[in-house]
Give the backbone structure.
Amino acid sequence: MSVSMNACGRSRDHRLAISQAFSALTVVGIFCVEAAKNASGEIFDWDSGADQGVRDDERSPFSGGKRVIVDGLLTRRETAIVAGVFYAIAIAVGLAIVLQLYRLRASVAVDEVALDAAPASELDEREAAR
């Protein structure tokens, strides 16, 4: 799959391939942010007392989260570690995506400079070859 991008508002056509690995990396990043957010929510619910204030017969999917700490599945410290690890992975994935986009942007800019510096006859040949 490729996406046609118009670099710097120019009319020349640049094609940047969107790889399956790049897409998968994006999905992993989104998953990590979601997991970290849920773990952070559990900690907030525990610290605020929201989880302890809901009786078992009043429990619903909308009443105080998953109750991971209250039910003893994880301690507060373990939940904080889970949140931290997932936030760290999400940050690393986000930085990898930004760096990759920066590299793509730089390569497009180099292509633009090369096309601008080429003689008109060479540009005509390049356009005809497309």
